[in-house]
Amino acid sequence: MEIILKPDPKPSRQSNKTIRKKWVKKSTIYAALSIFAIINVYPILWMVINSFKSEKEFTVNQFGFPKDFVIDNYISAWNTANLGILFKNSIFICIVATLITVFIGALASYFLSRFTFKMNKGIYSFFIFGMLIPIHSTLVPMFILLRDLGLLNSPITLLFPYIAFHLPLTIFILTSFMKQFPKDIEESAVMDGAGIFRIFWSIILPMSRPAVATVVILNFIYNWNEFSFALVLINDPALQTLPLGLASFAGQFTVNYGAQMAGLTMSLLPILIFYLLLEKEIVKGMTAGAVKG
Amino acid sequence: MHLAKKSKFAIIIGLLPALLLYTIFAIVPILQSFYYSLMEWNGFSEMKFVGLSNFKMLFQDPLFWKSAKNNLFVVIASVLGQIPIALVIALLLNRKLKGAKFFRTIGFLPVVLSTVVISLTWSLIYNTKNGLINELLRTVGLESLTQNWLGDTSWSMIAVCITVIWQFVGLYLIIFLAALQNIPEEVLEAAKIDGASEWVTTWKITIPMIWDTIIVAVILCISGSLRTFDLIYVMTHGGPAHSTEVMALYMFNETFNKLQYGYGSAVSVVIFFFSLLLIFIVTKSMGKKMI
């Protein structure tokens, strides 16, 4: 008892030391994380800030904020790169491809997950194999195939590869989600006289909402960012998507940095807003998509 | 009962749209490339059967080997860059920390951006005259270190790889964080009570417990970086002097610039099998080590 009651200077000194140690540790961690964050975000920030500077100011004041905001870069980028057309094409392709992929993918997943038939496993594996195909090995044959079908350089050209190559992941995610529902769901619906497609549309699809949201987001982002197929299959400037248009725009105007940065910033904006609004879903979807793909 | 009778027809109707589109536009092209790879064909005139001579030509082309070597370089740089950085940041973030969410948001940001936007942004950063890096070096008085980052054969590949690493660290960071959060609290608690330091706990408990995830990440990283095409196409077009040319770019140039569709298809076939083989080897070899 006495020993415990006696004031002992040692422990308190030690705890002082551990407090300091903890503080040093915490600061080191924050320092490391901050460096990481700066490296991650500064390249983008640097570009966005400089897109508001005149060519002259950019050469002398690259690191500061713009002295007076110049939007000339935006006007010239919008006009020379035909950003309006690019946005329109990208939005059209993205929405249509995503809707079709998710709809027919969900329909296929419904039958693959809720029905037993002879070819079930085989068809499922056939779809999943698609996730292993390196897309670049199909660029040449895809070009030839679409050319022979007379589908090169049309507003719907890109729908075909985009749908075909995103079906595997869509089916994978939706099938594994739909498999978890208990069996008696359909049974009671059948008792009520609902048909097979009715059950899909009014029971299974609404129940799969979280997984459907994931695949919609994934498809949208992948389609929005896709470049290789667009590069090979689209020649007509009026049909270019945003990534393709930006790449050729930058090639043409290598000297006009301001306009280039303005064009990049504008094309960055939609996906950035999308990301900040739906961060949780996007992160979840893209990591799931990557791990499973 | 009612369901079973009708179901056969319904199953066919339900699967057909997906099956047709997928087969025609994903599987048929692969099979066609096998067929075309045996032909000499400029894409327009009559095809000529040449057997395996496209492959023979391919394996004798030093440029092909150079592109394969460059490809391997990108793969190795990605694995050695992305995985350790992502793991360290994930370990640092995996604790009660103010602002952890902020760092996660920032960390993942590059992953959602389009490769074209990233490539163009980094091309501006590497720019000799006005680029961020050279300007930074000049500001701190290290003018002698400024380089023509993308235009100098001894730097171009490194510059490209830094961008590749930057683009995807965030993906593995999130994957590792998810795995770390799955480690049961009690395990780490027990180690702490036993007096293990955080360093020891990390090496002896945390890392072994997420080893499976690390392997998955390495495989992902390999198959992802093998497919690098967009980024290099936009940043350097494979140059200067083919110093950043990877296999997909070699294929693109041989096919569409030289109009050799048969030869290009042979390269496609090689890329296809090379990818599958590499993933197979890594899965096997790392799987063995685990036991």
Could you name the key traits of this structure?
heterodimer; A: mainly alpha; MetI-like fold; 2 domains; 76% helix; globular; B: 291 residues; mainly alpha; two-stranded antiparallel sheet
Give a verbal description of the structure:
- Chain A: Residues 87-278 form the ABC transmembrane type-1 domain.
- The complex is a heterodimer of chains A (293) and B (291).
- Chain A has helices at 2-5, 9-50, 55-60, 72-80, 83-114, 120-129, 139-148, 159-178, 184-191, 196-207, 209-225, 228-233, 242-252, 257-277, 279-292.
- By secondary structure, chain A is an all-alpha fold.
- In chain A, helix 4 packs across helix 14 and helix 6 (120-129) crosses helix 8.
- The longest helix of chain A has 42 residues, at 9-50.
- Chain B has a single domain (18-126, 157-290), classed as MetI-like fold (Orthogonal Bundle), CATH 1.10.3720.10.
- Chain B has helices spanning 2-36, 53-60, 62-93, 100-112, 115-126, 132-139, 153-181, 185-193, 198-209, 211-226, 230-235, 247-257, 261-290; strands at residues 39-40, 48-49.
- Chain B has a two-stranded antiparallel sheet.
- Chain B is globular.
- Chains A and B meet through helix 2, helix 5, helix 7, helix 8 and helix 10 of A and helix 1, helix 3, helix 4, helix 5 and helix 6 of B.
